[in-house]
Each structure stands twice: as structure tokens, then as C-alpha cells.
Amino acid sequence: MRLRRKHRSKDRRPGRGVTLVELLITVCILAILAGLAIVRSDVGTMQAEAAARNFAADAAFVQAEAIARPDVGCLFRVAADRSSYWVARKAAPDTPITHPIRRQPYRVYVGKLNADGLDRVTINGFAFGGDNDLQFDAFGAPDQSTAATIDFVSAKVGWRVRIDPLTGVATVSRITDTELSIIEMEPPEEED
User: Fold this and answer.
1) In a domain, 138, yes or no
2) Which of 65, 123, 138, 168 could, after both became Cys, cross-link 70 (CB 3.0–4.6 A)?
3) DSSP β-ladder status, 157-163 and 170-174
4) What pLDDT shows up at residue 95?
5) CA geometry: angle at 142 spanning 137 and 146, to 5°?
6) Could you report the per-residue pLDDT of 57-83, keeping only the tens digit for each?
7) How far apart are CA 176 and CA 180, in angstroms?
8) Is 14 among the domain residues?
9) Are the C-beta atoms of residues 172 and 189 closer than 8 Å to each other?
10) Pairwise CA distance, residues 190 & 79, whole Å
């Protein structure tokens, strides 16, 4: 005499439920998708911080150049459309100097034109004493009496570089949500 076993898989009726394995697979897929979303938003945040830190490093270079070569001077200039900034000599502020390492014009693009992976970043605002130039004197001090600032934003997160008016030292800090909302409401400065 043979005993018959009933297999649950054959007797399963539609709409009865899901197995534990199916449930675990679904949870794993959702966890992976959530992790990708978190990483994607963090990339934008990191890009804005990286752009700000790059500018701070460039500021240290410009300051050192101004001290080392006071006869020709050195400055930053931000493009009117805020798509880039470059390092130039006082005598030719529209012409970037040659980058000491890359041996190309010392011009840094932000946004879609950036080739260094900072394609989501924008220059959201800057204050260089009323113009687009930030110069340093032979002692390394900026050419203005108040702090110079430039803001980099990506994924609704902003980072500000502040250049001290006495020492010329650049500091990088995160912009608060309140400051960021005020900055986003202000129209871009137009060049005369």
C-alpha cells in the first residue's frame, strides 16, 4: 500500500499568500534600491563640499603667488554666468595663467562643463567686494575690508568658502538651510 503525499505547491490556490523566500527577496530588493537612493543624494552633497575645498586650495595658491611675485600679482575672477572661475595676473585679468601641474589654463568649471566629476555643482553666489575679482596684495591680504565669500551648491546642499579680510586664510563651512533658501531667492549679480 502506497501512501500519497500531498504537495503544497500543487494545491496552492491563487491569492493565498506569499512564501517566506518571496518576501525576503522583495525586502532585499527594496533595501538595495533605498541604499542606491541614499548614495546618489550623498554624491551631490560631497560634490559641493569638494568644489568648496578645491576653491579654498586654489585661494591658498593665489595668495602664495601674490606673495612670491608681488610685481605681477595674482587674482581670482568669476565668470559673469558663474559657470567658472580662473586664476590670472593683474595685468591680464581675463586671461588665465597656466596651471603649474596640468600645464593648461588655470580655469575651473562647475556644472556640466566640469571634467573632474563635479558636474552637479553650481556657484550660487559670491561677494568679492562688489566686483568679480578677488586680489591679494604682497602680504597675502585680500583687496577688501570685509570677508570674501563664494557659495557652492549641489543637491540643495551648500558649502561656503570665506576668506578672512586680514589674513587671507580660507575656511570652508556648510551653509545652513535658512541661508541657502535666502541665497536661492536672490537673483544673480549682473556684470556692468
Assistant:
1) yes
2) 138
3) antiparallel
4) 94
5) 150
6) 999 999 999 999 999 889 999 998 888
7) 6
8) no
9) no
10) 10
CATH label of the domain that carries residue 78: 3.55.40.10
- Count of other CB atoms within 10 angstroms of residue 75: 22
Higher pLDDT, 9 or 121: 121
Which among 88, 81, 83 is positioned nearest to 58, based on CA atoms? 88
Q: How far apart are CA 188 and CA 155, in angstroms?
A: 19
With a pLDDT cut of 90, the percent of the chain lying above it is 37
- Amino acid at the residue 118: L
AA identity, residue 180: L
Cell of 167: 589674513
Does residue 26 come out as left (phi exceeding 0), alpha (psi in the -120 to 50 range) or beta?
A: alpha
Residue 34's pLDDT is what? 72
User: How many domains are contained in the chain?
Assistant: 1
Assess if residue 91 is contained within a domain.
yes
Q: What is the average pLDDT across 18-46?
A: 74
Flag whether 9 is in a domain. Answer: no
- What's the pLDDT at 191? 44
d(Cα 179, Cα 79) in Å, to the nearest integer? 23
Full residue range of the structural domain in which residue 123 is found: 19-185
Rounded-to-integer distance, Cα 175 and Cα 80, Å: 22
